[in-house]
Amino acid sequence: MTCHYGIELLAETPRFCTANQYQTHHYHYKTDHYQCCGCSYTIQATFNPPLVSLDLLGRLAATRPNYQTLADRISQPDKILPTLETTFTAALQFTKDLIKGSRRDINSRNVNLEIKLGVDPASIELLNLLGFELKDSFFIAPSEAYVTVNKDRLLRIQHELALFLESCRSPTNNTALDISSANPLIAEWVGVNEILEPTTGRQVETFRLFGTIPTAKDDLVIWLYQMVLKEHPNDSAMYLDCLIDAANLSRSNLLLTEVALERSRGKVGYKEIREACENFDIKQDVAVDDRLLTELYRIKVSDEPHNKNKHRDHLKVIAIARRSEALYDFLKDEPPKVHKVFLLLDVFLFFSFLEIVIKRESVCIPVGLNNIGNTCYFNSLLQYYFTLLPLRKTVLNIDSYVENEDDPNWVPKKIGGITVDQHEVRRAKKFVYLLRSLFINLQNTSQRAISPEYDLAYMALLNEKDVEEAAAEAAAEAVASVSASAVEASSTPIESLQTIDQQNTKEKEAKEVYKFHYNKNLNPPTHTHIYIYLYSCFLECMDNVTYLIEAALKPVETQDGEQVRDMVRDLFYGKARQILTYQDTQTSQNIKKIKEEEFSHLIVDAAQGKDLYDGLDEYFFADQVENFQGGREATREVTVSTFPPVLQIIVQRVQFDRATANVYKSNAFIQFEKIIYLDRYADRNFDSLAEKRAEVTNWRKEEEIHKAKIDELINNKASKSCENKGSLGYAYQIPVPDMLEATANILEIQMAQQPQNAEQHEAAIQFLLKEAREARETIQESTCAIEVLRSKIKNQYSSLTKDAYRIHAVFIHQGQANYGHYWVYMYDKPTDQWWKYNDSHVTKVEEAELFRDTSGSTANPYFLVYVREEDSDALVETVAKKEIPHVLSAA
Asked: Which residue windows are coiled coil (predicted)?
């Protein structure tokens, strides 16, 4: 149990800093408030101690357990005592009643009160805080005037009680508390910029001294460093230490560069000075003659010649700190152990340069992609394809794999049943060469982010049919725009106008329509939302890209003109067998039909309470096909004869509501694992696992029965179907146990008002409480049963681990079915590091960010990529390796 302080903020209307060259507010404490030195925006914060004291909480906790378990209630039904959970629940209800204006006295001898709240010194003090006073066995409610005057105080007590209750609730208590985080509101009032400080993280002292958090953008950290230097120039060594720590913690090229530049300007940090002094076994605060230092340096170099550069660096730090001309001159005559080409460079600038290059090459931060107009999903896809080694190597060396459609013997081919002629091959080759150019830049650029070519995005986002339709639409609009008067005044007929208009190429016209389609009547992109028209744009874009790459590639194998093998199909495509079993309507014989087909991805539905394996089981295992062959049912099962090296799984979140005829996005949390095993879906195991599949089917049926019981009691569906719309059940959509307890509370009030019917009321109250306990026990029992069943299902195939696949990429969509923003997480196996690719911003993230429960959020996975574990090193390279320049390697 912890004590909570309340924070009261008084501020102007929230806004970002408007000062010139200020990236964000820079606050200073001014006696009783905080003020930005740039725009004078002011915030006053008051910290209020809790009204429910820690001492009172301690006394309550000393006499009550947090909650009572189901086993305790069953084994000791006559010893049901108040718990912290019931005490805070009762006190919270009394507080809410007072705030709403319902003031009633409380009988201290009431059995229900003794069971829930208890009557002891601590509980009496808790009621006194609310304004109740114990007189003649009754807690007398405070007056209306008291409640009016102390309403703010009661509201604070209500918030504290709600937080205390949340901290001690039993796992089976499904009563939702109205508690929400204040962080978003505080961030809004303080003026936190989500672009500069996108996510919260652990508060490291280094970043705290700059007034920010570890996930702040590099530009912001450098700006804050420069600001504190202006305001505290005498502490430059301390703040340089902070900058060095920040650069080492984040392994940022930009921060490492800033450190090197500061050193080249003659700045050093306290830690560097201390380490330099320790290197020569001298005390930092003791003056040592420069000649003695040079002798100590020569001794060190003589004893450790292989560490000459290290000792020289330490001596350089002391020279800078002392501003010693003698040591400067000595260092110039004592060159570092490097390639002679660098002797022409200034000694200090050289070491800064060397440090930047080596650290940059060792860090290898992936390059971001700028958003060139609602293309966040396209950027995610490009980054993903760049990490796939077979695809990247093929594209970078495309000349060795590309079609030669100008060969006299070349004949059109088919891809997915679509005929690909010379025109389409040329179009596809243009796309692939643009893609190669992008990949080369991603691998070799020194910039933090680059922009894809507009033509690359245009070709990926619109297929050939879209191009033709767009061109036709553009041509029609161009002709229609010619006024009637202009036509009459011209001697050129309409046909000639059309001929002239057609001189513009289809692609030019389509590009204009593309710009119109993706920008007209849309809100401008912001850092929180980048709008698109369709949630399915990503999947259409992916199909377009893979089709264009295939069209440009020479086939590895063809069958009847169909390109059945190439790099794309070898990488993404597997082979499945669809087994359809049904009874013939005429002969009544059982028929089994098997159809083999290729697949490039799997689809799982996003449904609450289901994990990835549940979705895959639904996809592969027995499913009933209704209205098959004259209305009879058929059973459909799918097995896999060949799994692809890269397994792509679509989480189907866009769904259709038949009741409203609207499309919506399901934000259900889908749990997925770092490594999944696909043996249960393999064709080789189909027959041997039949019994296990049947067991899982039965367990899932049991699970659904228990879920229905819980749903009936929690969501109270029976009350929703009441024909009498004036009934209690219809009026109050609350869980059954809560509804029963609320009814008992109402009867308790009536009993206090009508003491002559106390016996009947008490009997009814006890009956309602008994029913409420039984309902909660049913919820608990079903919850436990579901946990047991889930464990059985999870462990059913635990011994099958041959077909192992490791997670590589997780694509996120934030928003609704018709708009949103996209980004992707990708895993770098050699460093065990996850990277977040959010357009131009590429940052490291903790693994927990990917696997956290996203319930209640619109940002959730919609596309998962797994790679075959045994081949993962050959399949993916998330962080592209860069070679150190040759001149450095010779040093």
From this structure: 758-792
- CA atoms 72, 77, 79, 82: torsion sign: positive
Does a structural domain hold residue 641?
yes
Note whether 388 and 452 are same-domain residues.
yes
Structural domain span for residue 17: 6-49
What gap in Å lies between CA 318 and CA 323, rounded to an integer? 8
Instruction: Please give the tally of structural domains in the chain.
Output: 6
Considering the entire predicted model, what is its pTM?
A: 0.54
Domain shared by 238 and 281, yes or no: yes
Neighbours of 737 (CB within 10 A): 24
- Establish if 685 belongs to a structural domain: yes
Per-residue pLDDT tens over the stretch 67-82: 876 666 666 666 667 8
Q: What is the pLDDT of residues 169-205, one digit of tens each?
A: 766 665 556 666 666 677 666 776 655 555 444 445 6
Say whether both 496 and 402 belong to one domain: yes
pLDDT in tens, 446-495: 788 888 888 888 888 776 655 555 555 555 554 444 433 333 333 333 23
| Total residues belonging to the chain | 891
DSSP string, 393-417: HHHHTGGGTB--TTSTT---EEETT
Based on the domain organization, do 357 and 384 belong to the same domain? Answer: no
The burial of 599, by beta-carbon neighbours within 10 Å (0-12 exposed, 13-18 middle, 19 or more buried), is given as middle
What pLDDT score was predicted for residue 465? 55
The DSSP line for 755-814 is GGGHHHHHHHHHHHHHHHHHHHHHHHHHHHHHHHHHHHHHHTTTT--SSEEEEEEEEEEE
Residue 400 CB neighbours (<10 A): 8
- Tell me, yes or no, whether 510 and 418 share the same domain: yes
Last-in-domain residue among 305, 340, 363: 363
Are residues 807 and 791 located together in one domain of the fold? no
Could you tell me the CATH number of the domain that includes residue 830?
A: 3.90.70.10
3-state helix, strand, coil in the chain (%, to 5): 50, 20, 35
Q: What is the arithmetic mean of pLDDT over 586-612?
A: 86
Residue with tokens 């980048």: 530
Are residue 539 and residue 637 in the same domain, yes or no? no
Q: Are 638 and 577 a contacting pair, CB within 8 Å?
A: yes
Q: Could you tell me the CA-to-CA distances from 508 to 514, 515, 541, 860 in Å, in that order?
A: 10, 11, 20, 37
Nearest Cα neighbor of 385 from 155, 548, 235 is 548
| Sign of the four-CA dihedral 426, 427, 432, 437 | positive
Q: Which of 753, 768, 795 corresponds to the end of one domain?
A: 795
Q: From CA 376, how far away is CA 532, in angstroms rounded? A: 9
Give the C-alpha separation, 528 to 717, whole Å: 38
In tens, the pLDDT along 707-753 reads: 888 888 887 654 444 444 444 444 446 788 888 888 888 888 888 77
Per-residue 3-state assignment (H helix, E strand, C coil) for 276-339: HHHHCCCCCCCCCCHHHHHHHHHHHHHHCHHHHHHHHHHHHHHHHHHCCHHHHHHHHHCCCCCC
Tell me the pLDDT tens digit for each residue of 680-712: 999 999 989 999 988 998 998 999 899 888 888
Determine, yes or no, domain membership for 704.
Answer: no
Alpha-carbon gap, residue 802 to 682, rounded angstroms: 10
Residue 216, pLDDT > 60, answer yes
Answer yes or no: is pLDDT of 829 > 60: yes
- Dihedral sign for Cα 737, 740, 743, 745, please: negative
The Cα angle at residue 112 between residues 107 and 118, in degrees rounded to 5:
75
Query: Is the domain of 398 the same as that of 541?
Result: yes
The C-alpha R_g of the chain, in whole angstroms, comes to: 36
Residue 567 in any domain: the answer is no
Q: What are phi and psi of 261, to 5 degrees?
A: -65, -40
Query: What is the chain's mean pLDDT, rounded?
Result: 78
Q: What Cα–Cα distance (Å) separates residue 376 from each residue in 118, 198, 448, 520? A: 59, 17, 17, 18
